[in-house]
Amino acid sequence: MRNVTLAMLGVAVLVGWSGSVAAQTLTVSRWAGPQADAQKVLLDQYAAEHGIEIRFDAIDYGQLKQKQTLNMSTKTGEYDLIYVPEAWFGEYSEAGYLEPLTKYVENPELTGENWDMLDFSRAGMDVYSDADGALKALPYFAQTPLLVYNKTMLEEAGFEPPQTWDELLAVAKYFKEQGTGIALPFRQGSAITNVLAVLLAGNETDFFAADGKLDLTNPAVVETVNFMQDLAQYGFNGSNGWHWDEVNKVLQFGQAPLGITASGLFTALEDEDQSNVAGQLGYAPIPHNKRVAGLLQMWGWAIPADSKNKEEAFKLAAWLTSKEALTAMSEADPSFISFRQSLGSDPALAATAPWLQAANEALASGVTLPLRPAAPELLTSLATGLSSVVTDPNADVGGMLSGVQDAEAGKF
Amino acid sequence: MRKPTVGSVAKWVALVLFCVWTIVPIALVVLNSFKKAKDIFTTTPTLFFTPTLDNYVNAFTKANFGLFYLNSIVVALVSTVIVIVVGTFAAYALTNFRLPFANAIAGGFLLGKLVPVISILLPLFVMINAIGLRGTLAGPIIAHAALNLPFVIWLMMGFIRDVPRELAQAAMIDGCTRMQIFWKVIFPIILPGVAAAFVLSMQYSWNELLFSLQLTTLDTYTLPVGIASFVGAISVDWGLSSAAATATMVPLIIVGFFVQKHIAQGTTGGAVKG
Amino acid sequence: MLAWLLLIPAAAVVVTVMILPLGFALFASLFQYSLGQEDRMVFVFLDNYVRFFTDPVALHALFNTLLFTVLSLSLCLAVGVGVAVLLRDMHRPTANVLRAIYAMPILISPIIVSLIWRYMYDPTYGLVYWLLHLFGLGGFPGLTSSATALICIVIADVWHTAPFIILVASAGLTVIPEELYEAARIDNANPLQVLFKITLPLLTKVLVVLILIRGTDAFRTFDLIYGLTGGGPANATTSLSIYAYQQAFENNQMGYAMAASIVTLACLVVLFGPFLRNSAQDQGE
C-alpha cells in the first residue's frame, strides 16, 4: 500500500515538474564575454515579455565551434539559435546544419511589424546566403581591425595619425627607439591573418587572382608581407605572441602609443573604470598603401535544422536584429556595431563610440576573409608562415609564400 | 645543533627558493583577484592597493558558480567512487585468482591510460546522446571514471599483491568466502592505496574541461567550464578570471595540504616496498 | 566465476568508453571526411597516414612533442628528485610542512595554470620580465621566439608537475634503509657518490612509475600549450594534440585528425610500452 502511495506521489511530482517547464524553452549558443553579458540582460527582458524561457549557453570561444558541430552533426536538437561567424558559415551550410530562412523573413507575423530587411547592409546578407541564394543566418554584429593611437603620446612626439604604410613605419620606428613601439596581434593564430587580409586589400591585391586561383607569389602580396615583417621589427615587446586581447591591454593601460586591434573589443578602452587613457585615444582604419581598407568580420544568428522550435527561434532572432534591440545592444556595449545601415549614422550611438566613424569607413570598404571550403587550411598555413617571418627579420618572405602557395594551391 | 656548513646553508637556500617559486605564482593570482584592473596591469607589481571584492561578486553573479560547485562535487565524487569500487574489484580479480590471460587483460586496461582523448570524444558524444544521457551529469561521470580506471586498477594491483598470501590463506581455512576475505583481510590493508586513488581521481575530475563541457548542457556544467568561459573569453577580464580561479583552486589546495601524504604513499604503493 | 564477475564492470567501462571509440577512430582514420558530411565519406585506406608522415607540419609537431616530453620529464625528475633528496634527512615536521607547501600546484587545473603563466610571462606586466629587467635581461624573447617558446612552456609545466615527483620520490626515499647511508658516511663517500650509488639505484622502481605517469601526460599536453602560445610562433610549440585538434575542429578534417591521434597512441605505446611491461612484470613477481 505504501509503495503505491509513493509511486503515485512520484508520478504527481513528475507531472507537476513537466507542467512547470511546459512554457516554451529556447536554447541559445554563443561565446562568453562582455558582449554576452550585455545580451543576457536583453534576452531576459524578452523572455519575461513573451512568457518563454531562454537558456543562454555562453561558453569559452575556443570550445564553441566544437560544441555546436558535435550537437548539430549528431542532431541532438540542443540549440534553437546559434551564433555563427562568416568563417564557419560555409561549412555549416554545406553540411546542412542550418535552416533556410527565406520563408520566415517574408512572414510579417514572425518578423514583427517594422522589421525592415532592406535596411541590412547588402554585404552581410550576401555572406549569409548559400550558393543557391537562400539566406541562412541574420547578420547581427560586425567588426573590423582598426588602428588605435594615443593622441597625447603622438602629439608629444610631433606625429600626425599615420595613414599610409610609410607613415606608420616612421611612427612605429620612432616609438620603438623610445622603448615601446606598435602593439600588434602577431601571435600564430587568426588575428595575424586578419591583419594580412586588410593590408592586402589596402595594397589592392588579394589571396586569389582574378581567375580564382591562389596567388600568393604575386609581387603585391610579397610586398605586403614584407611590410608586415618590417612593421614587426618595431613591434611592442611581446607583440609576436599576442592576440587582440593583449594588444588591448597595453593600449588600455597606457603603455603603448599605438596598436592594431579589433573594434569589437573597444568598449573597455573608453571605460573610465577600466582604462587609464579613456578619452585620449584616436581610431583610424589600418594604414594602407593604395586605398583605405577594412575587414568585414561578422556574427549572425542561425537556426539549426534540428531545432524543435524553429518559428519561436526565428521570432527571437528577428527581435534581436530589430532596430530597438540593436540600439539597446549598442547602448549597453558601445563596441557593438550592427548591420543596419539606418543605425550607422545614429548620432546618439556615435557619441559613446568614438571609433564609429573609422569603423564605418573601414567596413564600407571591407573585404571578407576567404570563405571557400579549404580556406581554414589556407589560413592555418598562412598563420604559421606569417609567424615565422615576423619573428625573424631575416626570414625569406618570398620563400615562405611560395611554400604556402605550393602546399595549398591544389585545394583551390 | 651542528654548526652550519656551506652545504647545509646552500641546501636551505635551495629549499626556500623553491618555496618562493611555488608560492609566488599562486599568490599573484590570489592577489589579482582582489585588485581592480588598473592595479593588475602595472609595469611594476603592486603590493599595496585598495582591495576590492567586486571581482568575486561579479564572478558569482555572471556565472552560476553555486550550481557549478555542486555539479563538480557530484561528478568528482560519483566518478571517483565508481572508479574505486570497480577498479579495486578488477584488481582483486586479476591478482588473487589464477585467471587465464590475467597479464594480457591487465595490459589491455593499462593501454587505456594511453588513449588520446580527442580520438574518443566524438564516438563517446554520439553514444551518450543515443542512450539519452547527454546533458546529464552521467556523461562526465562515465568519461572521468573510464579515464581514471586504468591507472586505479594498476595502482590497486600493486597494493593487493603486497598483502601477504598467508593472511588470505589463514582466512580461507577459517571458512571465509573470497568476498569476505576481500572485505575483512585485504581491504583494511590497502586503505592507503584507496586514499591515493581517491585523491588522484578527484583531482582529475575536478579539473577536467573537455568532457565536462562537451557532454553536458547549461544545467550540468562544472567549475572548469565556468572558469573557461572567463579565461577563454574573447577579451579576458583578469580580475574576474583570477577570482574564479581562486574560488576553484583554494578549496582543493587546502584539502591537498592535508592529504598530500596519501598521494605519495599511494602512488608508489608496491613499487616502494618492492 | 567470481573473478569474472568482479572483472566485468571494469571491462565494460573500458570497452565501451575507450576500446569501442578507439575502434571507431581507427575506422574513421581510413576515410577522408568532414563532420556532418558522413554521406560524402571517401575511403582512402592509409592515405591519411601517408599524408601525416609526409606533412612537414605534422612531423614538426611530432618532433616538438618528443622534445617537450623529454625536456619536461627530465627537468621534472631532476628538480623533483633533487628536492626530495634534500628533504630526506631533514627535521621531520619541517620537511612535512615544506612538502605540503610544495604540493600546492598539483591540484590546480591546467586552465588556471595557463592563466597564471600567461600573466607571469607578459613582457609588460609579468613578474618574469620584471625580474629579468632587474638583471638587465629584458630583451629575453620568451614566448615570442621560436627558439625560446618551448622552453618557457616546459618551465611552466615543471612548476605544475614537479611537486608530484617530489611527493612520490619522498615516499620512495623513506624505505631506503638508513644503514646504507651510515655505511656510506663511514666510507667517506661524497654526496654525489651517495646519490648515484645508493639513492638512485634503489629508487629505480619509483622512477619507472613516475616516468610512466608523467611521460604519458606530457606527451599529450594540450591546455597549457593552447593557452600560452596556441602552437606558435611558427609552429615551434605545436604538439600532436594541438595538431590533431586543429585538424578536427578548425580544418574539419575528421579522418585525418583521427589518423593523427592514432599515430599519437602508437608513439605512446612504442615509447612507454616497455615501462608498462616492466612495471606489470615487477608486480607479477
Automatic annotation (TrEMBL), chain A:
Concerning its family, UniProt says: Belongs to the bacterial solute-binding protein 1 family.
Q: What is its main location?
A: periplasm
Signal listed as a keyword: yes
Q: Could you name the Gene Ontology cellular component terms for this entry?
A: periplasmic space
Q: Which residues form the signal peptide?
A: 1-23
Protein known as: Sugar ABC transporter substrate-binding protein
- UniProt cross-references to InterPro entries, sorted A to Z: Bact_solute-bd_prot1 (IPR050490), SBP (IPR006059)
- Where does this one sit in the cell? Periplasm
What domain of life is recorded for the organism?
Bacteria
User: What keywords tag this UniProt record?
Assistant: Periplasm, Signal
Keyword Nucleotide-binding attached: no
UniProt xrefs under Pfam families: SBP_bac_1
From TrEMBL, chain B:
Instruction: Mark the transmembrane ranges.
Output: 12-31, 68-94, 106-131, 137-160, 181-206, 226-259
Q: Where in the cell is it found?
A: Cell membrane
Q: Which GO terms describe its biological process?
A: transmembrane transport
Q: State one Pfam family annotation.
A: BPD_transp_1
Q: Does the keyword Membrane apply?
A: yes
Residue span, ABC transmembrane type-1 domain? 69-259
UniProt keywords (A-Z) are:
Cell membrane, Membrane, Sugar transport, Transmembrane, Transmembrane helix, Transport
Kindly state one GO CC term assigned in the UniProt record.
plasma membrane
The record describes the protein's role as:
Part of the ABC transporter complex MalEFGK involved in maltose/maltodextrin import. Probably responsible for the translocation of the substrate across the membrane.
Family assignment from sequence similarity: Belongs to the binding-protein-dependent transport system permease family. MalFG subfamily.
Question: What is the designated name of this protein?
Answer: Maltose/maltodextrin transport system permease protein MalG
Which source organism?
Devosia oryzisoli
